Amino acid sequence: MNKREELMQKYAEDLKQKCKVKPEMELLTKLTIACGPAIYNKDASTVSASDASEIKTLRNNFLIKKLGLQDSPDLNTAIAEVLDIYGQSNRNKYRAVVYYLLTKRFGKESIFQN
Fold it and tell me: What is the CATH number of domain 3-112?
């Protein structure tokens, strides 16, 4: 098993255990790949829920640029909901898992289908 597959197993476990979501592995795979090399960097692979600049980056770079959503207050609400689902007390919120939950929240799975 390569490193990406190991990480995807960890992400799938987080979705099942911490988020109570049964992951669609094909979507999770594509979102993990979309994260690029960030998944291999300890700091970049996680989302800091308490960092305002991190939330702004999530909104601008993922929701607006990648998912093609219009900027609105609903984006921040959705991010807060997803982080709450992941668990505010959970220290390590993996970027791929947050992306997965946001993609599902907005019904944008088709962006990652070939």
Answer: 1.10.238.120
